[in-house]
Write a sequence for this structure.
């Protein structure tokens, strides 16, 4: 069967610039979620404005979690189901589910889907896209089901109404690092519940470190003498160190957390460091009460963010690590950049610094818009912009007070954050290039 004219056009377009199809794909997801949320069946009682529905739809698909209306009070069960479906497909990535179905039925992917898949996941050389998509969907299903069972037990013990729905919604939200909650104050009522804190943390970290790590570790276990890739080692190293250091600094220096009993103090400090770095966006302690040092540390963790090929946002751990490696090599007078004894291709280092630059430009752009449209405190606007661009979802309480133009500015930031600031820039100024790997070098996902 000959391909249709539309298919040929899309193939040609994808060959030229597949990243632009990401903009279209996520935009289409947002449009569908927005239309569904605009239906009266999605509302709990009062009508919700189209702009607020657009804000929630963008926040869900981008797995951010910022809300201009209180989710459990504003939306019906159907509305919550739409929101959950939106951050599920947003967390898995554009075309992942469709590609999985095609692989299951045809055992192959079209050229178009391969091009888009490589753009979505930014896989280093040596990874099979088909196997990666299979591992992604299976891993997601296993982790989320385990999370639902575990959270159901905890929520039932805590006498939560409809514990199964609460467990399902929060398990998917945590793994997709979406931060949406059907509780009015996120997870603040469970600040001293060790089981819920532990389960949400595990789900969030597994989502944030990414499907690439899970696929890599699985292949390492099933294929003898196969070592984990450099990307996996960087992701695990950066994630562990940033969360632990962030936890210790918050525990030692944030004065608002020090007013809590020791057990709650430990849990709250850990959870806030974890939720910022993984960009999951839940909170067990009111963000608006954090001291200046707590806000500053949270801001840094939000900017660093999760890892490539995962459900989280932010600058990405590999880009941060690569830039730090360049700085360290420059200080030592080295011409080549090595990480864990492996040289990094020059093209990937350019990509890492481009990611930094595009992220800073997008962040400053978003801050400027919010300073123009809003009349909130300086630190509140900076925090809101960083949270939106990093698809984190934490807020110092100004989201519900955003003006119409302020909401549009945050919508733009969340959209850019989901696609990725660098990918957004590539979509506008794309020049086809390839990464050449020479002897002694190893590719890294960025």
């Amino acid at each position: 069967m000959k391909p249709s004219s539309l298919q040929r056009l899309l193939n040609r377009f994808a060959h030229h610039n597949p990243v632009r199809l990401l903009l279209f794909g996520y935009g289409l997801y947002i449009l569908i979620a927005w239309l569904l949320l605009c239906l009266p069946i999605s509302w709990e009682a009062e009508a919700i404005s189209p702009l607020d529905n657009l804000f929630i739809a963008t926040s869900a698909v981008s797995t951010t979690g910022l809300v201009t209306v209180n989710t459990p009070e504003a939306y019906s069960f159907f509305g919550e189901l739409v929101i959950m479906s939106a951050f599920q497909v947003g967390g898995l990535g554009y075309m992942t589910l469709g590609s999985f179905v095609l692989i299951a039925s045809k055992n192959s992917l079209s050229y178009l889907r391969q091009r888009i898949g490589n753009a979505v996941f930014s896989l280093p050389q040596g990874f099979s896209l088909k196997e990666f998509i299979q591992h992604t969907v299976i891993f997601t299903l296993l982790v989320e089901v385990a999370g639902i069972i575990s959270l159901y037990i905890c929520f039932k013990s805590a006498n939560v109404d409809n514990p199964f729905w609460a467990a399902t919604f929060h398990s998917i939200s945590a793994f997709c690092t979406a931060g949406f909650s059907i509780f009015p104050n996120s997870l603040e009522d469970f600040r001293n519940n060790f089981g819920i804190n532990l389960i949400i943390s595990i789900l969030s970290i597994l989502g944030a470190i990414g499907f690439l790590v899970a696929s890599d570790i699985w292949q390492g276990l099933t294929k003898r003498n196969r070592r984990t890739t450099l990307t996996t080692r960087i992701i695990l190293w950066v994630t562990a160190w940033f969360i632990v250091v962030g936890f210790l600094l918050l525990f030692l220096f944030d004065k608002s957390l020090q007013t809590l009993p020791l057990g709650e103090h430990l849990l709250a400090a850990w959870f806030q460091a974890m939720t910022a770095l993984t960009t999951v966006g839940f909170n067990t302690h009111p963000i608006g009460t954090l001291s200046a040092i707590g806000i500053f540390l949270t801001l840094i963790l939000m900017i660093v963010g999760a890892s490539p090929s995962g459900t989280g946002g932010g600058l990405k751990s590999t880009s941060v690590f690569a830039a730090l490696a360049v700085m360290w090599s420059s200080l030592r007078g080295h011409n080549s950049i090595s990480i864990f004894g492996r040289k990094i291709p020059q093209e990937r280092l350019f990509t890492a610094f481009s990611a930094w630059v595009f992220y800073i430009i997008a962040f400053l752009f978003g801050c400027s818009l919010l300073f123009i449209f809003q009349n909130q405190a300086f630190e509140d606007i900076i925090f809101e912009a960083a949270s939106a661009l990093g698809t984190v979802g934490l807020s110092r309480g100004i989201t519900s007070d955003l003006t119409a133009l302020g909401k549009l500015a945050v919508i733009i930031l969340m959209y850019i954050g989901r696609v990725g600031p660098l990918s957004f820039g590539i979509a506008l100024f794309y020049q086809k290039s390839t990464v050449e790997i020479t002897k002694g070098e190893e590719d890294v996902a960025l």
